[in-house]
Amino acid sequence: MVSTTTFDHFPNLFVRFTILANYTLENMISSKKSVLNSGMDKDELYRMCRQKFLVNSMPTLNAQLVEFRDHNLLELKKQDNVLKVCLKINKDTLTSIKEELNF
Description:
globular; single chain; Arc Repressor Mutant, subunit A
């Protein structure tokens, strides 16, 4: 069972997680991989979060991503001079989390 305590206290964190999780799952399915090595463009994540009024600046997003990094859920990778945000969760686990948290 997934603990939602952190998400209960920080609902915006949950929304950011769902954006990353959905992006990751969609790309795992389309590439037929169980682990996605290339992540979401950080600028694209920022754009999507800003549209949903979750952040107002890139430094704000950076500060909020620290929570995920501290729990070893994501890493930042530079690919072709683009910073990517990569969830470090395999497809089966991510699918289970999505079903359990209903997003």
